[in-house]
Write a structure and sequence with these properties.
about 190 residues, mainly alpha, two-stranded parallel sheet, two-stranded antiparallel sheet, 4 strands, about 55% helix, binds adenosine monophosphate
């Protein structure tokens, strides 16, 4: 959802102008606006075989809406992946994140710096990837998104993943959790 919202902002659509006020401040965009985006996106043919939502749902109201919407389409979630890391680790990872607008690759200025001077000169840092805005985003997370943990724990779909360590290790943990639980379900 973050990517879709940023695309609307870049394209200066009427919705994009509305979103910008929220994202710049590190606040969540109101649920009804995000619901419309998600429903439009899931309606695209590439979502027919399956889909992965990143950054959605972020509130209990969004999760309840998603349940109802998927039910209407005769679909259901298979897994909910929770990648856990302390706020201090998140701060270190986010302040330093830089995206190459040409390839879309996301670098980290300290942990995974751009490999050439040319790429270093063109990387873009998200406006909300500052310590100040991140503090607000984390507050929003703890207040509005964290209640989703008991919500999904209750359904048996929650897969808790240790988010510490290199990207490859975290990825392997996610794949293992998804494969194990899919096997158990069949
Ligand atoms: P992200 O790229 O996931 O870090 O999201 C960036 C920003 O987009 C957030 O700080 C929110 O302002 C907005 N956003 C993304 N996903 C959602 C969502 N599910 N609900 C509300 N706002 C969202």
């Amino acid at each position: 959802t973050g990517d879709i919202i940023r695309a609307a902002i870049t394209n200066q659509t009427p919705r994009g102008l509305e979103f910008k006020k929220f994202t710049d401040a590190g606040a969540l965009v109101p649920d009804d606006l995000v619901h419309a985006l998600v429903e439009d996106r899931l309606d695209q043919p590439d979502c027919l075989p399956g889909f992965l939502l990143d950054g959605f749902p972020r509130t209990v109201a969004q999760a309840e809406w998603l349940d109802g919407m998927l039910k209407r389409y005769g679909r259901a979630l298979a897994h909910v992946v929770l990648i856990e890391a302390d706020d201090g680790v998140i701060l270190e990872r986010i302040v330093g994140r830089a995206t190459d607008p040409v390839t879309g690759h996301i670098y980290h200025l300290k942990f995974d710096p751009p490999p050439t001077a040319e790429i270093a000169a063109r990387v873009v840092i998200r406006k909300d990837d500052t310590a100040d805005v991140l503090t607000r985003r984390l507050q929003e997370y703890h207040e509005k998104t964290q209640p989703l943990i008991p919500y999904y724990e209750h359904t048996g779909l929650l897969r808790r993943i240790d988010g510490l360590g290199p990207v490859d290790r975290v990825k392997a943990r996610i794949l293992a959790a998804i494969q194990t639980t899919s096997q158990n379900a069949t």
